[in-house]
Every structure is written in structure tokens, then in C-alpha cells.
Amino acid sequence: MKNFLLICIMFTMSFAFAQIPSGSGVYLNKLIVSPNGDDLTNEYIEIRGTADAIIPSDLYLINVEGDGEGDRNDFGQVGEVIQLGDGTRTFGSNGFLSIVANYTDENTNVVTTNPYTNVISSGTTIVTIELIGNDVTGSSSSNVSSFTPDIGYDGNFEDWSATYMLIQAPSNPSGIDIDADDDGVIDATGDHTMWTRYDSVSFLDEDDLLGNVDPNDGTDFGEFGYGQIIVVRDAAENAGLFFTDTGATVIENTGSNVHFWGRQGTSTGFSASDWIAASFDGTGPNWEFSDNTARVSPAEFASYIIPSEIYGALNPTAALLSVTEQELTDDISFFPNPTNNVININSKNDIISSIEIVDVTGKILVQKKSDLDVVDLTAFSTGLYYMNVYGDGSKITKAIVKN
After folding, report:
1. 236 vs 19: which has the higher pLDDT
2. 254, 329, 349, 175: which is closest to 9 by C-alpha?
3. Residues 219 and 353 in one domain
4. Which residue range is the domain that position 204 belongs to?
5. N or C: which end of the chain has fewer CB within 10 A?
6. pLDDT interval class at 311 (50, 70, 90)
7. H or E element at residue 39
8. How many CB atoms lie within 10 A of CB 277?
């Protein structure tokens, strides 16, 4: 009999994940692996490392299958493998690596360009995969006939349920089974014990709940997550969702699947406060997070609209957004943005009482209660900042870029 571990929401045990040795210094910064619209040009992968450092050729981003459908037994197996380094590729001068894809229809020669390339921050190393296929709207690997360069990414990374791991391995890990006995726990022996794991996250949907019976597939085995932090869908309603280890931090996403993963600021850990997990709507790159706080973690990110300037940069923290935001009105404008020196603030009707400039971790760098029509950023380093404008009992926040 399979020995499954029932989900318990939000707890941690100290003995977790000893099966795969841990490393530090390389992190999953953003993952958009099942966006709205066409996966083949709207997915986005972003890795954070050391500025200008060579990316080892044995550094991989992998997914581990987590769907326990009754007609399959590959849960726990490594599926797709993206080789991040080639011996010469480096992290950008800002410490980031981004992977995106364009698509050319082989019948019409129509090119669909991904929405991220033109907004990714200067200094980021960008790997653009050129896909050729028969239907960009198909959103399936079957709609891709070739991809260049071949780093193992075809524009459609494995969707839910799956675990996404950033690992260093002595050889390509494709097909390795980290859960050979299918009990939902990473095995203590096997090839994976020779890996170094830098980061891992999971999302579990609910289409293969334990005990579900499909007349064609038989009885399902549940949903399997092998990450150090796991988002599960509707766990409170479904006792048949399972995960790997009592050491995982588990977050519930109610009523929807997760579209966006991201680390908060410079975080490196696996508590809920280290991560952002959200369902979203709209179109990329300015995806809009759900306004339902049950579908966004932490809740401060509800209704957050991703600014273009955030790609190839650190994500904001919940602390940065801890005051309820309202959308910018036509009465307030900020210009120029990006800027080389100053930001001008033009307010027609709103009464501004104070202005703050904060970094992506929420640290306050500037506070002003007078001369509120201009902020001088001349002395600031290049990068992404946020301007908080307070007035009339409310707050609005604007992402700004210093060139």
C-alpha cells in the first residue's frame, strides 16, 4: 500500500529534505509557467545569482512530475530539464538570468514575440529561445517542431502538479526518479542524493485526488509535491492532496491555480514570508494579481499589477505594500520614468502630504514632507525603486527606474 502524508497547512520540521544536499547562492526569482493566453510566448523564467559569475554547465532547472493519474506511475520522476549554463554564459551584471521564447509559424512565417524582452532590466543575461511550429495558440509542446538554442526548453514548461527544482548535478538528470516507491517522500537513496539543490517550489492542483475514479484511467493516486515550499489548491476541502515531507511549508490557494511564483526581495528561505504566490489575470508583462486574498500569498499582493520594470530585478516585499494601495488616478503623474536624475510629480487635484522612496526590500531611502513636486535621484545607484505618495488618508505606489 502507498503510504501517503496528509497535508497539514503551514508547519515546518527541522529534519526536512536531508535526502538532497542543499546549496546557496542561486535562486528561483520568478516563474510564470502557466500564464493566461499562449504558454509558448508568455512563460517567463528568471534566476538570481552572482553578478557576472559564470553559470556552471551542470546547473539545471528541472521539473518533477506530481500528477498521480490512475494510468501513470511517473510521479517523482524528472521530466523536462533546462541546462542553464554552457561554460561561458554568465549571470548579468545585475545578477539575473532570464529565459523567454519567440514563436514563428512555419506555415505563415508570422512571428509572435514574447512580451518581456523589451522590458527586462538592462544588465540581465537573456536567453531567447526561437520556436518554430504550427500554432502559437496551441500552448502545447506538440505545437513546436524545433527550438534554438536547444537548452531543453521548448516554451512550455511542465504545468501543475509539478515541482520546480534548481539543482547542480553530475550528469543530465532527465528521467531520474526521486520517489521510486511512490510513497510521496523523496527517497533517501538514489542518484538524486548526488545533487546539490539550491531552490525548489511546488504547485499541486486537484484533478488527481486520491480515490477519484476515472472509468478510463482507474483510481487516481493523489497530487505529489517535492518542493521545500508548496502551494496546494483547496486543501481544506480535499483531504486527498498529498506532499512529500513534513518539512515543507504549505500554503493553500483557494479556488484557483497559481500562475506566478516569486521570491520577496532578497529572500533565500522557505517560509511563506519569503515567497509570493498568486493567481492573476490580464496580459503580460503587466499581469494583474487576483483581488481575492485567498488566491494571493501574502495578502498584501492582492490586486498588485506587475510593473514592467520588475523583470530582471528583485521582487517587492509584502512590507513594501503593507499599506493598502489604490490605483493611480489621472490626477497624479510621474515623469520622466525611467530617469537619470529627478522625478517630477504633477498633482492636479489630489493633496499630497508626503513622499517616500523605498528600495525593493521596503527600506526607506528618502522621506519628504515639503517640495513635493520633485525628487532627486541623482545620487542613487541604477535600478528599480518604489515611490510611495501619501495624501488624504490613502497611498499610491509607483515603480520607478533610475538609469
Report:
1. 19
2. 254
3. no
4. 27-320
5. N
6. very high
7. helix 39-42
8. 24
